[in-house]
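Dear all,

This email documents one entry for the complex benchmark we are building for the journal club exercise. For each entry we list the sequence lines for every component of the assembly. Then comes the predicted three-dimensional structure of the complex as a token string, followed by one or two observations. Please use this as the template for your own entries, and keep the labels exactly as they appear.
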Amino acid sequence: EADIYQTPRYLVIGTGKKITLECSQTMGHDKMYWYQQDPGMELHLIHYSYGVNSTEKGDLSSESTVSRIRTEHFPLTLESARPSHTSQYLCASSRALSNQPQHFGDGTRLSIL
Amino acid sequence: GEDVEQSLFLSVREGDSSVINCTYTDSSSTYLYWYKQEPGAGLQLLTYIFSNMDMKQDQRLTVLLNKKDKHLSLRIADTQTGDSAIYFCAESAAGNTGKLIFGQGTTLQVKP
């Protein structure tokens, strides 16, 4: 079973605040991903990483940034939150070999007032 | 470009079989996946099938792949109320990025 953890699970915060969403995995997976998902809707890839010091933009443009200093940790940061950032953010990871399944965390539901 | 399409909603009675359908466009996809998402949760990997297979069965789940028509289906036998969720079909994107292309998700409603 996959071990990938996201914190916080829920966050309600005011406009203009700096936010960091945490994602950690204990499986030693090289590849990690961030998705944005509105409730009940499709997933949009916003960032991914092949490994340490690798970050790439996803298919959906996002004002967020990511870093990958350690294999197990892939935090996502919003420098100045806006109501348009309200959404669910899902983190996933997979092994380095191609076509390996992605394993997901439980997500962070973010609401910007 | 790569695209995955699913019907949006399916309603069945408890004990019946459910069949969720998916079509994809990228014939080079090596793996195809089914994920389940319960309310407020992340995605749970249910099963996946390699593109050189026609069928894969895992307990109540049966995956059928028609590569010629680029059609994938997930059959859930003896559907239970706990199966109510959103089901996402996904194909592996071209290249070695590890990226997945997801469908819009099918909401399965199971009536008692």
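Observations: Chain A has a mean pLDDT of 93. The two ends of chain A are 36 Å apart (CA to CA).
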